[in-house]
Amino acid sequence: MLKLRQLQKQKQEQARQNGTIPAPGNAPVSACQLRLRKDLASLDIPPCVSIDVSECESNSRLYINITPDEGYYKCGHFKFCATFKDTYPIEPPKVTLLSKIFHPNIDLQGNVCLNILREDWSPVLDVQSILIGLLMLFLEPNATDPLNKVAADVLAANPHQFRRDVATSLRGGQVNGQWYDRVI
Amino acid sequence: MADLADVSILVLGAGGLGCEILKNLAMQGIPDIHVVDMDTIELTNLNRQFLFRESDIGQSKALVAARFINEKNIMGLGGRPVVVTAHFQDLTLLDRKFIERFTLIVSGLDSIEARRFMNMQLVRITFESRFEKCIPFIDGGSEGLKGHCKTIIPGFSACYECSLDTLPAKIESYPLCTVSNNPRLPEHVIEFLMSVQWAQQHPDRDFDFDSKEDLQWLMDEAHARARQFNIDTSKLTPQFVLGVIKNIVPSVASTNAIIAAQCCTEVSKLLYNEYDIGEAPNFLVYNGDDGCFAYSFVHERVSTCLVCRESIQ
Ligand SMILES: [Zn+2]
């Protein structure tokens, strides 16, 4: 191990000459927490999105508020909860919508069908990618791979009817015998 | 050669890879070897974990592996006998003072979290000792017919976290819409139950893989849901279901042997000063899926790495 010991000596010698010593860039928290902090520090949040850090029960839970400024869901207030386990970013966080919505890709329990949250997740993705992904769901609901089949069928068959149904649901009304949460 | 008699190596894991690594290090004559593993021996381990026998089932892997090697009375470097010391415990509970006494650490783990933990500890040891201490970390990994070996010199070359972005997604998962509305495979049924239905029925707690009741719940629900969607239920045996939820990839003895050999070669290169830090290829990937292929390369340190980046004090 002589070679390594020599390198260590060199490094210490350099440090003495420069009067500086390299130190770890971070406080001792878990690698997952470090990554999450970095994600949050580098966020570029669009005006219609806000993140509740104050409401965090623990460091690994985030609340994401989205108020779309266009599309079918314009002006609705939607709050998502994202839970990060210590496997992040190898595994994606679990994201659920906290209110009941009439949407082809989100079921009545708030489960979200978004490819990057499951089959297309990769550790290079981050909180920013998730924000953009969620926003896209509101701008372009997708009827081809539905989670809520009823909503998808309406969207595919009659976009005007879909727009009316969404408007009703956002006001807390009833669509196809199902009551929705008022989010406007 | 004098200091070689003082070498001590910590081996993480005494499973398929760990057994091979322990055997190699002992045959290389490393006098002081420690091994940490919290698992006990199961019948299904015996085909590839060659330090264990049927009569060892139920006992600690670390303790049995250490006993097996110690009984061979191997003479090590500097005329010192090879002694393996076992630690039957969770490695993330090892304390810092204990870790610091080793010359090298070799890991044969299957958990990414445990590796991230050890990587972070070792990087901090280098920085906080102001480069007085530096413990190389050689990380072996094997999954089916594929494997890797990473040689990490904390503070000098790429750390485990530097390469995190290159890891493949850990779990095969299916689109939520498919598993919810159009399940076609038994895997789809299980995934729906685990990622949607469990949380709905048990909002207060996580699924417990060690609980008989939880597994029974999963079996019952899986059969009901499979019948509902006309999916063949004959595949839904407890073994199959466990395999899907634990993402079990078959462990192959030859892959373990190849990766362990590479790890122990790296140990020798470091000990005998045949390793050029920063220039030698530090990562090796092996793939036996299609023919037999190995490739080694230099993985550069990532200057923005959250664990090993430097701030000047
Ligand atoms: Zn790093």
TrEMBL record, chain A:
Residues the record marks as active site: C113
Catalytic activity annotation: [E1 NEDD8-activating enzyme]-S-[NEDD8 protein]-yl-L-cysteine + [E2 NEDD8-conjugating enzyme]-L-cysteine = [E1 NEDD8-activating enzyme]-L-cysteine + [E2 NEDD8-conjugating enzyme]-S-[NEDD8-protein]-yl-L-cysteine
Keyword Cell membrane attached: no
Keywords: ATP-binding, Nucleotide-binding, Transferase, Ubl conjugation pathway
Record EC number: 2.3.2.34
Pfam families: UQ_con
Segments traversing the membrane: none
Protein's UniProt keywords contain Cell membrane: no
InterPro entries linked to this entry: Ub_conjugating_enzyme, UBC, UBQ-conjugating_AS, UBQ-conjugating_enzyme/RWD
Domain UBC core span(s) in chain numbering: 31-175
A GO molecular function held by the record: NEDD8 conjugating enzyme activity
Enzyme class, broadest EC rank: transferase
Annotated metabolic or biological route of this protein: Protein modification; protein neddylation
Region span, Disordered: 1-24
Family assignment from sequence similarity: Belongs to the ubiquitin-conjugating enzyme family.
Protein name per Swiss-Prot or TrEMBL: NEDD8-conjugating enzyme UBC12
TrEMBL record, chain B:
Pathway: Protein modification; protein neddylation
GO cellular component: cytoplasm; nucleus
GO MF, any single term: NEDD8 activating enzyme activity
Keyword Ligase carried by entry: yes
EC main group: ligase
Enzyme Commission number(s) of this protein: 6.2.1.64
GO biological process, one term: protein neddylation
Protein role: Catalytic subunit of the dimeric E1 enzyme, which activates NEDD8.
Listed name of the protein: NEDD8-activating enzyme E1 catalytic subunit
